[in-house]
Amino acid sequence: MSQARNHGGDHFPTRLFGYRGAGALLPVLIVFVVVLADLLGGAGMIWLPLLAAGPALAATTNGPRGVLCVGLLAAALGAALGTRDGAPGHEVGAVLAALVAVTLASALAGALRTRRERVLAAVRSVAEAAQHALLRPVPATVGPFEVAVRYSAAAAEARIGGDLYALVPTPYGVRLIVGDVRGKGLPAVGTAALVLGVFREAAYDEPDLLAVVDRIERSLARNLGADDFVTAVVAGHPRPGQLELVNCGHAPPLLIGASGSVTAVEATHPAPPLGLRALTDQRPSLQVLPFADGDQLLLYTDGVIEARDRDREFYPLVEGLARHLSDEPARTLDAIHDDLLAHVGGRLHDDAALLLIRKPAVADPAVPQQALPGRLLGDQAA
Q1: pLDDT for residue 146 is more than 70
Q2: How far apart are the first and last CA of the chain?
Q3: Rounded Cα–Cα distance for residues 292 and 361 (Å)
Q4: How far is residue 189 CA from its own chain's centroid?
Q5: How far apart are CA 35 and CA 85, in angstroms?
Q6: What percent of the chain has pLDDT over 90?
Q7: Measuring CA to CA, which residue among 304, 301, 151 is closest to residue 230?
C-alpha cells in the first residue's frame, strides 16, 4: 500500500505543476483567470481582491511552500495590474495586505494538512502491518482446496476490524474459522487476535474439532468482559469427501454443489456464541457434511448479509452467489464483493468477510500446485 508523502519541501516547479495532477494547477489557473478578467474588463479593483482565492485554494492541494509561491505570484500580478490600471496606492496596498494575510493563513493550513497526512500515512502503515500479522494472506491453494478471501473493514482508514478468518493445514486435515467479534475498533481487533491465536494453536494440536472450539471458549471465558462474545463457524476436512462444521451462533455457511445448487447449512443443534457458554446449558455440536469434487463452501460474516441499500433492503447473498458462481473462487468473490459494494452505494457500514473454498477434481488441469504441508497461511507452522 503506497503511503502518503510529505510534499512540503518540494521545489516550486514540481509543487506548482507536478503535484497531485490537475489539482495543483487549479490555484494558478484561478489567478490567471482573475488577471485575464481584469485585462479584458478594465475594471481594476473590482477583480483584484479575487486573487486571494489562489493561495486559499492552494492550501487544499499544496504544502506551505506551494501556497507561498502561489501567494507571491498573485501579489506580484496584483501589484502590476494595480499600477497599470492607475488605482490609488492605498487601495493597491489594501489588496496586497489582504493577499499576504490570506497567503500566510493558507500556508499554516497547508502545513497542518501535510502533518495530518504524515500521521495518516503512519496509521495506514501500522494498520497494514497489523493486517498481515493478524489476517495473514491466504494462498490460492491450501491443502486440497482452492481458496479465496475478501475482507472489507468498515472503519474509514482501517484495514482490519472485528471480523476474522484463518485456514490451517494440520495433521488432521485443513481447518478453518470465520468469525465476528461483537463491537468495533481496537477492542474488537484485540479479541479477534486472541481467537485467531488460540485457533491456530489448537487446530494443530487437537484431533477433535470440538476440542478446538472448547479451547477457544475457555480462553475467551478468561479474557472477555461479561457482554462480549464472538460468533464463529469452525470447519475441518478430516478425510476425503467429508467436512465437519461447528456453528457457534454464526450465520449458516452456504454449501454449493457441483451442479450449482446453493444450500444454507443450518445448525442442527443451535449453540451460543463463543464466550457465552457459561450462561446456557447448550453446547456446540459437530455436523458432518458430504463434500465431493466440485463442491464449494462459502463462509461469511453479518456485514455481508446485513448490508442495506437505499431502500433498506438486505443484500441477497444466495441470489448473488448463484448469479456470480464460477469454478474459480477468486473470480466468484470478486464479483460478489463488487455486487455488494454496488448494493450499498460504495461503502460498507460494517466489517464484511467472505471465505470460499472449492474441492477441485483430482484430474482438473487448472488446479495449481498444492500448498506445502506444515504451512500456516503462508508461514511455517509452529
Answers
A1: yes
A2: 29
A3: 9
A4: 14
A5: 12
A6: 41
A7: 301
pLDDT mean across residues, the chain: 81
* Helices H / strands E in the chain, number of each: 10, 13
Cβ(138)–Cβ(154) below 8 Å: no
Q: Which helix (H) or strand (E) holds 130?
A: helix 89-134
Contact indicator for 189, 230 with CB cutoff of 8 Å:
no
* Dist CA 333 CA 258 (whole Å): 17
Cell of 2: 503506497
With a CB cutoff of 8 Å and minimum separation 6, the contacts of 108 are 64
Secondary structure (DSSP) of 79-122: HHHHHHHT--HHHHHHHHHHHHHHHHHHHHHHHHHHHHHHHHHH
Query: Up-side HSE of residue 372: CA atoms within 13 Å toward CB?
Result: 6
Q: Is the pLDDT of residue 364 over 60?
A: no
pLDDT at 103 over 50: yes
Cell numbers representing residue 49 in the block: 481582491
Residue 242 has pLDDT above 70, yes or no: yes
pLDDT at 363: 56
Residue with cell string 458430504: 290
Question: Long-range contacts of range 130-136, CB-CB < 8 Å, 24 or more positions apart?
Answer: 130/159, 130/160, 130/189, 131/159, 131/160, 134/160, 134/164, 134/189, 134/192, 134/193, 134/196, 135/160, 135/164, 135/165, 135/166, 135/196, 136/166, 136/376, 136/377, 136/378, 136/379
Instruction: Let me know how long the chain is.
Output: 382
The pTM of this model reads 0.67
